[in-house]
Amino acid sequence: MSDLFSKEDTRPKTERLAELAEQAKSCSACSLSRTRANVVFGMGNPEAPLVIIGEGPGQNEDSTGLPFVGRSGLFLDECLKACGITRKHIYICNVIRCRACAYEAGRLQNRPPTADEVKACQPWLEQTLQIIQPLVILCLGSPSANAIIHRNFRITQERGAWYASKYAPHAIASWHPAYILRLEGAAYNVAKEELVNDIEAARKRVIQARKEPPNSTLF
Ligand code: URA
Asked: Which residue has the higher pLDDT, 71 or 5?
């Protein structure tokens, strides 16, 4: 029986997310809407206890409409696989949902999102997380950690530490795959190992969090 006293949307998460993604297709809240090929809303399991949040779509993501399908995505999949995780186990999205890019040396290059772009996209991120209600969020890179954990997050100092977030009871940040792919030699190996360790820590935190009473103070 439905709860007469609650305004809670009781439809399945898949349906609610699909509706939100449809609405996002016509978003024009920032100027990235004028240059995008596709809104890259997010993909994966809407029932997932673990949500991974990156920075923003690159060229491959813009042309397919799917997050993390380029070089960074393949690398991330390899790191997830090392922890027994596939895309079916998680939901994955970005802080901004349209590609941010600029001409550099005559070529369109990805660039970090501006504060205004992040702000314009925040309602989509918030509504996504409100629907999924993850137990654990893994942020990849600073823009994601700034949006989810705290505004002055320093990835070099605070990576791998646990925080409570208003979007999930447990949040952790790690290196962005694209950053690791730019490293070489020992630095590459160390950063890759740290990302895998952070993913594994997130997996274990989900198991632990499932035993905790639900947190009704979120949002
Ligand atoms: N980098 C991101 O942060 N997100 C993507 O979807 C792809 C690359």
From this structure: 71
The answer to whether residue 213 scores a pLDDT higher than 90 is no
Q: Which token pair is 160?
A: 């791998």
Contact of 87 with 173, CB cutoff 8 Å: no
Q: Which domains does the chain have, with CATH numbers?
A: 42-95+128-209 (3.40.470.10)
Give the model's pLDDT for residue 7: 74
pTM assigned to the model: 0.94
* The pLDDT of residue 8: 81
Query: What spacing in Å lies between the alpha carbon of 70 and ligand 1's midpoint?
Result: 8
Instruction: Give kind and range of the element (H or E) at residue 120.
Output: helix 115-132
Ligand 1: residue of 32, 53, 68 to mutate (most ligand atoms within 8 A of CB) is 68
Ligand 1: which atom is nearest the Cα of residue 40?
6
Sequence letter at residue 211:
K
Alpha-carbon distance of 205 to 105, in angstroms, equals 44
Is the confidence at residue 23, as pLDDT, over 80?
Answer: yes
Ligand 1 contacts (CB < 6 A) are 54-58, 61, 67-68, 70, 72-73, 94, 178
87 and 97 Cβ atoms separated by less than 8 Å: no
